[in-house]
Amino acid sequence: MAKKTVLVFTRLWYFCIFSRDQLCRMVIKSEDGKELGSFNFKDEDESQEVRAIERKVLLEALANQLPSDAISFSSKLSSIERSDKGETLLKLEDDTQMSAKIVIACDGIRSPVAKWMGFPEPRYVGHIAFRGLGFYPEGQPFEQKVIYTYGRGVRAGYVPVSPTKVYWFIINNSPTPGPKITDPSLLRQITKELLGNWSTELLNIMKSTPDDRIIRTPLVDRWPWPGISPPASTGAVVLVGDAWHPMTPNLGQGACCALEDAVVLAKKLAQAINLGTMSIEDAFTSYGRERWPRIFPLSVRANLVGAFLQSDNPLVCFIRNNIVVPKLVRGGPMLEHANFEFESLY
């Protein structure tokens, strides 16, 4: 049996709002093309920045900071249990077995570690997201701004993530998650039908999207209720990111919160390992207590924002398009949830 000190389970996915060339403007439209509201980010709050990057690029940048043999890819966990010596026994799907003193599980919304710790399955919220990455080998033609379009029960948007790539999404209401769909031709047909005649620009971006860059995802979340949900850690096993607090993408903070988790967890581990001010178990407990006041309200807020924006009620849509977006939505207050301050780890 192989002996490991620290084992980190991670899951790769597609996209997140985080960093690239700074975006300068947000424009919100109705399905008929009417502009409902717009603002320059710097005019609203100079301390805030909005950037976009393909998640693959971000993950590669982070992975490149580690030794070349530090990550074993395609290692899926099949079971986890405690040993008589208090260590954690891990079995992978290829029958590899490991004994770990510390397990940091960041293995996504279907985390087997979270299930072992007593967390319920994430809850479907009633919305399906279609997402893709348009590719322009000669250079994408769009300005550095975010474009949103709101309809009744459907919304869409796109944003450049590099000089050659543009991220797009369409979200629609559905009473059930429905069957898994991976056929690119069927995904293209569904997204085109959902979009209708909304946006020629978005239709063209979708046409420029390679088949292997289109996905369909039922949106789910799981609120870490105080006093009800299990804690983020048990012994020397701890959850990070979606494994602990999956949230809907309506605030653009899912992956960002996972990175925040990592920063706080690293600080706590440094206090335990380098300074000896607490045990590993206490460090994990302290991490969970510090992060909960941030991730719980964000999870709830993301859900409520999505329910409001996805409404197909004519009155709610009228209020959204004629009062909330034009008169109440401003860059500074709208992005306050993204503010996160922390001390340097060095």
From TrEMBL:
Q: What is this protein called?
A: Monooxygenase 2-like isoform X2
Q: Which PANTHER family match?
A: FAD/NAD(P)-BINDING OXIDOREDUCTASE FAMILY PROTEIN (PTHR45934), FAD_NAD(P)-BINDING OXIDOREDUCTASE FAMILY PROTEIN (PTHR45934:SF9)
- Looking at the record, the residues that make up the FAD-binding domain are 59-293
Against SUPFAM superfamilies, the record matches this protein to: FAD/NAD(P)-binding domain
Q: Which organism is it from?
A: Olea europaea subsp. europaea
Q: Which residues are the signal sequence here?
A: none
GO molecular-function terms, A-Z: FAD binding; monooxygenase activity
Family stated for the protein in its record: Belongs to the 3-hydroxybenzoate 6-hydroxylase family.
The answer to whether keyword Phosphoprotein applies is: no
Query: Which InterPro entries is this protein grouped with?
Result: FAD-bd, FAD/NAD-bd_sf, MOase
**UniProt keywords, alphabetically:** Monooxygenase, Oxidoreductase
